[in-house]
Write a structure and sequence with these properties.
The chain has 16 helices and 16 strands. The chain has an 8-stranded mixed beta sheet with strand order 1-5-6-11-10-9-7-8. It has a 5-stranded mixed beta sheet with strand order 13-12-14-15-16, with helices on both faces. The two termini are 49 Å apart. It binds one RNA strand of 75 nucleotides through α3, β6, β10, β11 and α12.
Length: 425
RNA sequence: GUGGGUGUAGCUCAGUGGUAGAGCACUGGAUUGUGGCUCCAGGUGUCGCGGGUUCAAUUCCCGUCACUCACCCCA
């Protein structure tokens, strides 16, 4: 009986891990430069947390959560990161310690959807959350951060979409206006849209169904209804983006599938090949009411999340990162193999990356192995070298060979590796 | 949940009603301790699984499972 990876969940083999590490390092560097600190939360939360924050009429909560029932309590594998971070923010009363909190996270999320290109059941997101700043300037800063990161990650062909849902009052007014517009035309809507008209009318807006789009085309735009502070927030956000020189598309049809958003909403899409139908790289927005709804103080918040797998798909063509230069130790015979282990220890202590052959084989096969590993150096250690107290250092790139006395070996290797491509220096 | 596509060596795939191949990869060798190129040699497959038709099925039919792409929705 062989076992397989669970549907929609994938191993990431070492040959791919280099790209992941580089991406994660880039993300950390950019967000830390923006003064964000890392938050780590459990992968499992009370199911009710997600129901409360994401919304009970959303697809995520309705059908996509991995739920574990355990001794009367219902737990769920986190489908996204914002709810957990908000829970942690409230639970630790972080608002009482600092006026503004800037957190970032990186990790696995779980949604029981049908997998396809750019969509998995276990996937990875990186995201940022800011608590305690009502915006709109921080909203613009976050978008700038996202685009800076994507650019540094080597992601091409980006499009930033922005919109605003307004505050609760505007949203309620718009909801009424939309329902008033759609209800007489309900017969022309698709089945799911008819259902959503009752449960979550805003979601009808981003239906891809052609019939729905025709009906929606004549609907009023929420952006036109923005008034007062909502309008000022929106205008100032756009002015800030203009001032930053960040290109964007105002997209009134942008309606995120999570219920908790208020005012600012944004999304980054890419037309990069390799992405397939799932071309949304980043989704984010403001959720000023959530902290209060989770039992915390009325602290405004905004955040975004980006999908690492999708980003990797979008940057597929980029060259894989090269690891640190390696050194291969090729001992010939039992005596040399014994000696080689200590040699390798010394070299590693000096910072080198060393693989030592412990299996035996002809020198030819060992050199072949050293070469296929991409080693920079091969240290040949046979009876002749042992008797003379030297090690033959072979440079695989230049073919140069040199007998180096044991005592000078570590320094010699360090010097040679330092000049090699991929070395930290 | 719905629809399409695909399941043959480790990987990418070809192929035929008479129990199967290529390339890559891997291992060894091309005069005894010097790799990358080239050449030679070598091994492996329940042809996804179950059933049916047939003298005979990997090849035809049915079912099933898996993977995959798309819809829905989302990162």
């Amino acid at each position: 009986m062989q076992f397989r990876q669970v549907q929609g969940m994938h191993d990431i083999l070492p040959e791919q891990v280099g790209r992941w590490q580089r991406l994660e390092a880039t993300f950390r560097r950019v967000v830390e430069a923006h003064a964000f600190s890392e938050l780590r939360t459990p992968l499992v939360e009370p199911t009710a947390l997600f129901v409360r924050s994401i919304g009970d009429a959303t697809d995520i909560v309705e059908k996509e959560m991995f739920v574990l029932e355990r001794e009367g309590e219902s737990l769920a594998l986190r489908p996204e990161g914002t709810a957990s971070a908000a829970r942690a923010f409230v639970e630790h009363a972080v608002h009482a310690r600092e006026p503004v909190t800037r957190w970032y996270y990186l990790g696995a999320m779980f949604r029981a959807e049908r997998p396809q290109r750019g969509r998995q059941r276990q996937f990875h997101q990186a995201g940022c959350e800011v608590y305690g700043d009502p915006g709109p300037w921080v909203d613009a800063e976050l978008m700038e951060l996202v685009l800076t990161f994507l650019r540094e990650a080597g992601c091409p062909e980006l499009e930033l979409h922005v919109s605003s849902l307004g505050g609760p009052e505007t949203r309620a007014r718009y909801r009424d206006a939309l329902v008033a517009h759609l209800t007489p035309r309900a017969a022309a809507l698709s089945e799911t849209s008819q259902r959503r008209l009752a449960t979550n009318p805003l979601r009808v807006l981003d239906s891809k169904d052609p019939a729905d789009q025709a009906v929606v085309a004549g609907a009023p735009s929420l952006l036109d209804l923005l008034e007062g502070d909502d309008r000022a927030h929106w205008d100032e956000l756009l002015a800030s983006l203009d001032s930053l020189g960040v290109p964007y598309v105002v997209d009134p049809a942008l309606v995120r599938g999570l219920d908790y958003y208020t005012r600012t909403l944004f999304e980054v899409r890419s037309s990069a090949g390799g992405l397939g139908a799932q071309n949304t790289l980043v989704g984010g927005g403001r959720y000023d009411a959530m902290i209060g709804e989770l039992g915390g103080p009325p602290v405004p918040a905004i955040g975004f999340a980006l999908g690492l797998e999708r980003l990797l798909l979008a940057t597929e063509g980029a060259p894989a990162p090269t690891g640190r230069p390696r050194c291969f130790v090729a001992p010939l015979g039992a005596r040399a193999r014994r000696e080689a282990l200590g040699l390798a220890r010394e070299l590693r202590a000096s910072g080198a990356v060393v693989e030592v052959d412990t299996r035996g084989g002809s020198l030819k096969s060992l050199l072949r192995r050293a070469d296929s590993l991409g080693s920079r150096l091969c240290l040949v250690l046979g009876d002749g070298e042992l008797d003379r107290g030297v090690v033959q250092v072979k440079d695989l790139a230049s073919h140069e060979r040199a007998d180096v006395p044991r005592g000078a070996l570590v320094e010699d290797v360090r010097r040679r590796l330092a000049g090699a491509p991929g070395s930290p220096e």
